[in-house]
Amino acid sequence: GGVKRISGLIYEETRGILKVFLENVIRYAVTYTELAKRKTVTAMDVVYALKGQGRTL
Fold first, then answer.
1. How far apart are the first and last CA of the chain?
2. Which residues cross the membrane (predicted)?
């Protein structure tokens, strides 16, 4: 089988990594939104933010 139990510390580490990743994506997406002179972040802003970081959907 698979892993039945994972150390509790892994959750804290994963949460920290995910937080940094999301902060970067949101920062990029908000920048695209501001450059387009809009106040609403669109899905395409997020797609472009991911693409700018070398990640695609």
1. 30
2. none
Question: pLDDT digits over 14-40, tens only?
Answer: 999 999 999 999 999 999 999 999 999
Using CA atoms, how far apart are residues 45 and 26, in angstroms rounded to an integer?
9
CA distances from 40 to 6, 18, 29, 48 (A): 39, 23, 10, 15
Sequence spans of domains, the chain: 26-57
Can you read off the two tokens belonging to residue 31?
């920048």
- Other beta carbons within 10 angstroms of residue 33's beta carbon come to 19
Q: What is the DSSP string of 31-55?
A: HHHHHTT-SS--HHHHHHHHHHTT-
Measured CA to CA, the distance from residue 18 to residue 4 in angstroms comes to: 23
26-57: CATH class: mainly alpha
